[in-house]
Amino acid sequence: ITCHSLKGPANYLKLEAFAESLEQEDQNRLVNRYKMQLLIWLLETKTGDLDEIKQKQRFAAYFDQLKHDGILSQSSDFYDYDFWQNSYVKAQTARVVITNHAYFLHRVQDDKDFAKNKVLVFDEAQKLMLQLDQLSRHQLNLSHLLQSLQAKLGTPLPLLEKRLLESLVFELG
Fold first, then answer.
1. Phi, psi (deg, nearest 5) at residue 118
2. Which PROSITE patterns match (predicted)?
């Protein structure tokens, strides 16, 4: 059985951003030294998962520049090596996918077949229903609705429909 752990894009290193950061010498010599350590890590990692890196919080501002944003151009020099893209492809072919509840709900909105024929294991599963409830709520602009109802009341309508609309306008107003 194939199994894969999939995280949101911000959990992976974006190679393009890292390459750009290498071209700029930082004023902080510790950051420059850390860039060299990251180059060594790149030779060792198979996942590009930023959780593998130690002292990430110490260089939080630098890592904010390196996090993957989920956007990857097919013309990028790093397209075939992109960690997040490769992880997503592995998840598509895996039978069992381990993922975070919030990431799953956003991912499945973009890719309806993502969970098809898969066994899903959720990290923080207890929060799944709450997150689903928050995502399923729709907002309604009451002013716009009232204007539409008022406009509809100005047209000739059967008496019952007119009274129902008047009642709605009264209740919403």
1. -125, 150
2. HELICASE_ATP_BIND_2 (PS51193)
Whose structure tokens read 């949101």? 8
- Work out how many domains the chain is built from and give that number: 2
Per residue in 133-171, pLDDT (tens digit) is 777 766 777 788 888 888 888 888 888 888 888 888 888
Are residues 42 and 94 located together in one domain of the fold? yes
User: Which residues fall within 8 angstroms of residue 111, CB to CB, at 6 or more apart?
Assistant: none
User: What's 77-89 look like in SS3?
Assistant: CCHHHCHHHHHHH
Q: Which domain holds residue 123?
A: 3-135
Say how far residue 160 (Cα) sits from the centre of its chain.
47
Task: Output the pTM of the full model.
Answer: 0.71
Is 86 found in the same domain as 33?
yes
